[in-house]
Every structure is written in C-alpha cells, then in structure tokens.
C-alpha cells in the first residue's frame, strides 16, 4: 500500500536548468482563480446564500447574524429524509416530539440577543442556550459568542447534538445534559440566555444567572395561552421586559429523561 502524504505535502521543485512547459496566460488565470459556488446541491454555498437573502428580505439586518446563518450547514442537523427541506423557512421534526426552529426564528432571536447592552459594547460574551435540540442553533451561536453553554434535558437529543457538532470542532461550545429550567449556575453570569422552549412563566434561575447588561430571549405563554416572544434586559434597576410577536415553540419541561 502507498502511504498517503502528510501535510503540508512536499512539492518537488524543478532542478536548475530544467525547462518548464509554458502555460498560456489566460489558462493560468483560470486555474489560479478560486472556485465559485456552483450547483444546487445541499453542500453548495449558493443554497445557503439564497436562504440568507430571504432572511435579509424578511428584516434580519445584523450582518454578523446573516454571516453565521450562511456559514452553518443546516441540512447536516436534520434527518436525511428531510434534508431537502433544510433551507426552507420551516421547522422540522428532530425526534422525541422536538423540532429544529425555522431559520427566520433562529436569526430573529439571535439578532435580539445581540441587542443586549453588554453586546453593544463589544462582542457577545458567554451565552446559555436552553434546549440544545439537534445542535443547530448552538453552532450558529458559536460564531457570535465567546462561549456557548447549551443544556438539553433529553439524553437522546443531547447525544445526537454531540454527534452533529463533533465534526465542527467548536471549542467554545459546552454541551450539558440537565434540567434547563434550572439554568446552569456553573457558567453564570451570562451575557445572553436564549430558550428554544416556551413555558407559562420565566424561571427565576434564568434571571439570577443573567449578567447586569445581559439579555434573555425566550417564548412565553400569554394570558390566552398563546406564546409570545419575550425579551428581558437586566439593568442595575432591575428587569425590563418587552413582549414581541407571536411564536410557536415546544413546551418547556423540567427534569431529565
């Protein structure tokens, strides 16, 4: 068997006096140009670029969010049978009654997170994600935050997320199996907390673990039972809440299963 070359591979140089073939300038220019994204396959950058264009047209304005959404390959986080729908603006089942959120919802919530006072002063610091799911949102957050702590209560999904994220080698993402309603005190305080599940009330632990100047973005059930997007800013004077548009997330539950 031939041994595969190590990296960087050694390139043999022509010996002194040896003649090298002449390459036409036009051909040389073509061969040295970086390849442009081509095709319509799921691995094509063009497919993700079209998704990003739709997000921008829908109102997502933060360039870092659009760049992160365009960089993470969403089809690698869903079942093969659903991969052809990965770049549509739709939620998809990931097993155990859970879903991967719409790209527009992921982008919207992360853009809101970047509006935190401590994020406006610089890069987003430490973030806590409630509900790892398949790991997609954690991968997007990893490109925008210094550290991401992501907690999942369902062991099977926790393991699935680990499998999805392992090839990406994201050293700033920490996967935790635990009860998301309790938050994760060991990583606190957090510049941002984002939840992928909606409850009837805001867990006090989340508010306690949020840093002053930090922001929490989560779905929350209103008086009529319908979920609304809630934004909570922690200031020196206390918590400031804003209620935004209607959303639909899986219910927030306690315990580990």
From TrEMBL:
Enumerate the subcellular locations listed in this protein's record, separating them with semicolons. Answer: Cytoplasm
Task: Tell me which EC number(s) this protein carries.
Answer: 2.1.1.77
- Annotated SUPFAM superfamilies: S-adenosyl-L-methionine-dependent methyltransferases
Q: Which CDD domains match?
A: AdoMet_MTases
Q: What is its main location?
A: cytoplasm
**Recorded GO MF terms:** protein-L-isoaspartate (D-aspartate) O-methyltransferase activity
* Highest taxon, organism lineage: Bacteria
Q: Which InterPro entries match?
A: PCMT, SAM-dependent_MTases_sf
- Keywords, ordered alphabetically: Cytoplasm, Methyltransferase, S-adenosyl-L-methionine, Transferase
Q: Which GO biological process categories is it annotated with? A: methylation
- Alphabetized NCBIfam families for the sequence: pimt, PRK00312.1
Family, according to the entry, reads as follows:
Belongs to the methyltransferase superfamily. L-isoaspartyl/D-aspartyl protein methyltransferase family.
The name on file for this protein is Protein-L-isoaspartate O-methyltransferase
């Amino acid at each position: 068997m031939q041994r595969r070359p190590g990296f960087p591979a050694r390139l043999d140089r022509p010996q002194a006096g040896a003649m090298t073939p002449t390459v036409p300038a036009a051909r040389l220019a073509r061969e040295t140009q970086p390849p442009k994204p081509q095709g319509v396959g799921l691995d094509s950058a063009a497919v993700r670029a079209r998704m990003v264009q739709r997000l921008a047209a829908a109102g997502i304005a933060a360039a870092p969010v659009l760049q992160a959404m365009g960089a993470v390959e969403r089809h690698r986080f869903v079942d093969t049978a659903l991969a052809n729908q990965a770049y549509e603006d739709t939620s998809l089942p990931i097993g155990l009654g859970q879903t991967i959120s719409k790209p527009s919802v992921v982008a919207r919530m992360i853009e809101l997170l970047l509006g935190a006072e401590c994020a406006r002063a610089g890069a987003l610091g430490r973030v806590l994600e409630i509900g790892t799911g398949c790991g997609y949102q954690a991968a997007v957050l990893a490109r925008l935050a210094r550290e991401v702590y992501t907690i999942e209560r369902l062991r099977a999904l926790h393991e699935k997320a680990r499998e999805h994220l392992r090839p990406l080698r994201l050293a700033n993402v920490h996967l935790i199996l635990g009860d998301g309603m309790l938050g994760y005190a060991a990583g606190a305080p957090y510049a941002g907390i984002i939840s992928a599940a909606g409850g009837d009330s805001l867990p006090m632990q989340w508010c306690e673990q949020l840093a002053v100047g930090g922001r929490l973005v989560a779905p929350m059930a209103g008086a009529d039972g319908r979920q609304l997007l809630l934004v909570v800013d922690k200031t020196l004077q206390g918590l400031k809440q804003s209620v935004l548009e209607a959303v639909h997330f899986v219910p927030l539950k306690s315990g580990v299963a």
